Amino acid sequence: MKLQVAIDLLTTADALALSHQVAPHVDIIELGTPLIKNAGLSAISAVKAAHPDKQVFADLKTADAGELEADLAFAAGADLVTVLGSAADATIAGAVKAARAHGKGVVADLINHPDRVHRARELAELGVEFVEVHAGLDEQAQPGYSIEVLLRDGRESGVPFSIAGGVKLSTIAQVQASGASVAVAGAAIYGAPDPAAAARELKEAIRAAEPAAV
Ligand SMILES: O=C(CO)[C@H](O)[C@H](O)COP(=O)(O)O
């Protein structure tokens, strides 16, 4: 299972400061939606230039004009971009078309979708790399939120998926056991007193639970 850091900070300078601290411990560096809205696509270029060996994930959450928005982010240096799973099939297909033209990938974000399992299967058919089974920051803040519903839906979907929404050291083992391809951790890393240590601990927990190589 890969580890993805979600950088939900607001400036390119802060994003780069964090990415330099945590890069040795993560596989994918995500630029969060508020960061891209605040700093623009140049933030993607700056992070890719600083970390050419990492997958750079632009959390565009595209809702329309899939081909155009994905093309802009890929041209800026993104390796993966998000479209909303609730967007029209034509929007998803447009983003996938742009990804194929660039040799990159699309991730469909299932945030707030009422039927994640069914839609995840449709999105896989449309050609996305994987689906993100995701509870956003507002959903996580609701009383009674539990990551377990995400894990259940990801497992049941039968397609490659990531989990995002409160991934932390106390839940990483459950996330890995669910069969997720990627664990996305935002606040558990950028909000930690020592982000590098937090990322390292998450990565070590993943490695410890992986079957030994033969
Ligand atoms: O995309 C996001 C919000 O829409 C976040 O980046 C995602 O939820 C991961 O953050 P956290 O680990 O803090 O929940």
The number of strands is 8
CATH superfamily: Aldolase class I
Q: What is the end-to-end distance? A: 17 Å
Structurally, how many domains make up the residues? 1
Class based on secondary structure composition and strand pairing: alpha/beta
| Named CATH architecture | Alpha-Beta Barrel
Low-confidence stretches: none
Oligomer: single chain
- Overall geometry comes to globular
- In angstroms, what is the radius of gyration? 16 Å
**Strand numbers in spatial order across the main sheet:** 1-2-3-4-5-6-7-8
Q: Could you name the CATH topology?
A: TIM Barrel
Family: Belongs to the HPS/KGPDC family. HPS subfamily.
Enzyme class: lyase
Protein name: 3-hexulose-6-phosphate synthase
GO molecular function: hexulose-6-phosphate synthase activity
Structure description:
With 214 residues, the chain is α/β, with parallel strands linked by helices. The protein has a single domain (2-209), classed as Aldolase class I (TIM Barrel). It is 47% helix and 19% strand. It contains eleven helices and eight strands. It has helices at 12-22, 33-39, 42-50, 66-76, 89-102, 116-125, 137-140, 148-157, 172-177, 187-190, 195-209; strands spanning 2-7, 28-31, 55-62, 80-84, 105-109, 130-134, 161-164, 182-185. The chain has an eight-stranded parallel beta barrel with strand order 1-2-3-4-5-6-7-8, surrounded by eight helices. α1 links the parallel β1 and β2. α4 packs parallel to α5 (89-102). The protein starts with a strand and ends in a 5-residue tail after the last helix. The model has no long low-confidence stretch (mean pLDDT 97). Ribulose-5-phosphate binds at residues 6, 8, 32, 59, 134, 136-137, 140, 164-167, 184-188.
